[in-house]
Amino acid sequence: MGLARRWLRAGLLLLAAAALATVVGAAAAIGPARWAHGDRALGVAGTALLVLAVVALVLLWHRATRRRRWFVRWPTALAGFVLGAVLALPAAIGVYAAWPARAMVGAAAPEGAREVTVPADGGTRLAGWYLPGDNGTGLVLAHGASGTRASVLDQAAVLRRHGYSLLLLDARGHGRSGGRPMELGWWGEADLRAAVDWLAAQPEVAPGRIGLVGLSMGGEEAVGAAGADPRVAAVVAEGVTGRTAADKDLWLPRHALGAVQRGMDAWRDVLVGALSDAPKPPSLLSAVVRTQARVLLVTGAQVPDEAVAAAALKAAAPDRVEVWTVPGAGHTGGLATDPKGWERRVDGFLGRAFAPPA
């Protein structure tokens, strides 16, 4: 009976530690992170919860090991720290993804742009800038997490020189768009479908000549939207790795650390699903297999995960997917690192994708 009690006590202590580690991660996401974004009240509350949870973890460890020798106490502390990090980090990412601070536009509209509103699912109104072009092709520009339409102004300036009609869109809950924000891009299919509806109705855009250009979260949204909407003929996606655990499962290594990362990603997705009403999207791999659109994946040479993820997607549809790795570039840094190369590659790809059949 004594042994059974000890095992029960150990199990309860482990559950308590796991719960506290999860609270630490969640509090970190809504405490200092919100404080940094100017949300003082929520920042103070979250920071206070973070401090209390850390103190409780320390007291729990002290209580569990107070009569143990040093060679038991410190390995126990190390193991507890690793377990806490494995639980706390996905909790922090998941909570912040499902409940981020709103990003503000913070830039003036480019010359010649007009402010537009795009109706989306659930009565949500998406805000954007529209720049009409003269080559018959329309492109939706999708920004990354914690960004707005202002984040793709440089890409718009390049594409505008080539005559494309451009819709720079604030993602749901970002900038001046309505709805609740979500930093993993799970609203991408619904919102980009609405953007394609709007763009297809513009007189400057010819039927069958609509593409998507996205950075990071926006790139993942663009790939997913192409798999769900046959009207999308071309996608340029930069900095793509994955929106869900299923995406990263495709390319994570098969050793023990890869298994740990898979578990962390799955735990993050569970939390996001519980905290957000955004529909969990299918994998990027399934989108690439379904779509008939041509896809250009732009990766930064300084971010190895991007190249590995792109290679896995290309292997699924080698006839429709191209990969360009920008030497010396970081995450979504292709245009800043190699402006002439980015313009040449992207415009050349779009020209081939929208060329009339031979």
Widest sheet: strand ordering: 1-2-4-3-5-6-7-8
Structural class category: alpha/beta
What level of helicity do the residues show? 40-55%
Low-confidence stretches: none
CATH level 4 superfamily of the largest domain: Alpha/Beta hydrolase fold, catalytic domain
Distance between the termini: 81 Å
CATH class division of the largest domain: Alpha Beta
* Count of folded domains: 2
Structure notes:
- The protein has 358 residues and is an alpha/beta fold.
- The chain folds into 2 domains: 2-98; 114-252 and 279-353, Rossmann fold, CATH 3.40.50.1820.
- The protein has 13 helices and 8 strands.
- An 8-stranded mixed β-sheet has the order 1-2-4-3-5-6-7-8, with helices on both faces.
- Helix 1 packs antiparallel against helix 3 (40-65).
Quick recap:
The protein has 358 residues and is an alpha/beta fold. Helix content is 52%, strand content 14%.
Give the topology.
Blueprint: H1 2-30, H2 32-36, H3 40-65, H4 70-98, E1 114-119, E2 125-131, E3 138-142, H5 153-160, E4 165-169, H6 188-200, E5 210-215, H7 217-228, E6 232-238, H8 245-249, H9 256-275, H10 284-290, E7 294-300, H11 304-316, E8 321-326, H12 334-337, H13 339-353
Parallel strand pairs: 3-4, 3-5, 5-6, 6-7, 7-8
Antiparallel strand pairs: 1-2, 2-4
Helix pairs in contact: 1-3, 1-4, 4-9, 6-7, 7-10, 10-11
